[in-house]
Fold this sequence. Notes:
By secondary structure, the chain is mainly α. The protein contains 3 helices and no strands.
Amino acid sequence: MKASEIHWDEPARAKIVEDADRVLREAVLEVARTKDAASSDDAFAALNARLKDRFIDWEPGPDLRKYADAIAAGEISGDEG
């Protein structure tokens, strides 16, 4: 077996992504609820603090900024749909 053939199967890969999305969703909702974000930069820092120890090789990306901006603008709701 070649090293390039070693990877998670599709059900495991889907579960990993589902878990990562849940962790992100919970962090965004928590920051939005706690009002730790007077600005987009505050929200970004609060999100980064909550997420950095939850992932291996964490690097915040542009998607985190998108959620920080939405939190600061009051655009996040706890609704599911």
